[in-house]
Amino acid sequence: MGRMEKPACLNCGKPFTADARNARHQRYWTAAACKAASKWNSQAKWLAKPENQDYHRGPESVVRVKAWRVLLMYPLLLSVLELSTFDPSRKC
Ligand SMILES: [Zn+2]
C-alpha cells in the first residue's frame, strides 16, 4: 500500500482521494466544477500545441459545423412550422 498524503486538486486545492484505477495521473477532484476545469485545462493545452492549431479550420470543419448547426436548429424549425400551420378554428 502506498502514500498517505492525498493529492490536492489543481482547481480548488482541496485534498482528494483519487480513484484507485486512476491515482497515478488524477490531478482534479471529481466535483463537477473541478472536472470542468480539468477538461477546460486539457483542451487549452491541446489547442496550444502548434500541430493542433489548424485542427478546427479548413473546409471539412466548416461543412461539419454547418451540418451540426442545422441539426441543432431542426427541432426549433419543426415547432415553428407546426405553429404556423396550426389553425385553432379548424375542427377535427
Ligand atoms: Zn477541485
What's the layout of helices and strands?
Layout: H1 32-48, H2 59-85
Keywords:
92 residues, mainly alpha, elongated, binds zinc ion
Write structural notes for this entry.
- The protein has 92 residues and is an all-alpha fold.
- The protein folds into 2 domains: 50 residues, no CATH class; 32 residues, no CATH class.
- It has 2 helices and no strands.
- The mean pLDDT is 86.
- Zinc ion binds next to loops.
Total individual domains: 2
Sheet bearing the most strands, described? none
| Unreliable residue runs | none
SS summary, helix count: 2
Give the C-alpha Rg: 24 Å
Bound molecules: zinc ion
Anisotropy-based shape:
elongated
Helices and strands, in N-to-C order? HH
Mean pLDDT: 86
Q: Which percent range describes the beta-strand content? A: under 5%
What is the helix fraction of residues, given as a range? 40-55%
Number of strands: 0
Could you tell me how far the N terminus lies from the C terminus, measured between alpha carbons in angstroms? 73 Å
Helix-strand category: mainly alpha
